[in-house]
Amino acid sequence: MIAQPHPQLVGAAAKVDRAPRSLGSLAPARVARWLSVRHSLVTEAVAVLGLYTTYEVARGLVVGDRRVAVDHAQTVASLERRLHLFVEPNVQHAARALPGLLTLLGDAYLTLHLSVTAALLLWLHQRRPAVFARTRTTLLLASALALIGFVAFPTAPPRLAGLGIADTVSDGHVDLNKGLVSTLYNPYAAVPSMHVGYALIVAAALLRYGGTRTVRFAAAAYPLLVLLVIVATGNHFLFDAATGALVAMLAYPMAATISKAGKTDTLERSRPAAPVHRLPQVATANVRDLQPVEEELAA
Fold first, then answer.
1. Cβ–Cβ contacts within 10 Å for residue 45, how many?
2. What distance in Å separates the CA atoms of residue 193 and residue 274, rounded to the nearest whole number?
3. Measured between alpha carbons, how far is 260 from 242 in angstroms, rounded to an integer?
4. What mean pLDDT comes out for the span 54-75?
5. What's the burial of 180, exposed, middle or buried (CB within 10 Å: 0-12/13-18/19+)?
6. Which SS3 state, helix, strand or coil, does residue 193 take?
7. Dist CA 264 CA 221 (whole Å)
8. DSSP characters for 147-161?
9. How many CB atoms lie within 10 A of CB 190?
10. Contact between residue 3 and residue 281 where contact means Cβ atoms under 8 Å apart
11. What pLDDT does 266 receive?
12. pTM for this structure?
């Protein structure tokens, strides 16, 4: 008599084999898979623009209390004084001594932050596709971490903190405190400085993949230029720049972890499913056929 495998055992084996694919379909895994690869330029542009717009809107909506934000700014200034790092008024005074420099730095404050970052992403997408996804994800994670800082520690910029530091940007053709700009602009989101955070991410990518010595030199100088821009225009303390750098440093390993997890999951899903083997057929003897043998042994 040949025993057939039980149908429930075969079904259970099939479910066990399909389990990794079911786990891989969870939302976090899908997000990690999406973030770990480079998509078409149009898809990437739509996704990045959409997420950055969401970031800016959220940044504008989490406006903190003005008094609390100013108190935090005074606290930051006091900390820098104790550390002998309160140089913001001196930097602005020195920049004002050069005719036209503050205007130039104000224009740089309004344009460099996004234009240079966008140019880097476009260049990586077209020329360094293998590293595009990780850099893009680093920028997105840094923005998300920054939102936490804006909510947890709303801080007025030096120009609004009553420290004798002028608002050189709004003195020009763009007023950060009025009109359409002010509706999406959070004046109390100085900590961390994402001008510096983005600049460091851009610089790190160009230093590693830029190729020519000129590009690498420009990459090394770029964060220093951004630091000068944000301090001379009265928009950030040195403390803000330091926290922006911290956010960038935290975002990079997080992006690397997500990229690795996404690629591993994609690799596992790309493997063909293991075939479900039927359980081997086992020959069984009739119990009555064994009785003569038992009687012989007993004799």
1. 15
2. 51
3. 28
4. 84
5. exposed
6. coil
7. 36
8. HHHHHHS-B--GGGT
9. 30
10. yes
11. 62
12. 0.79
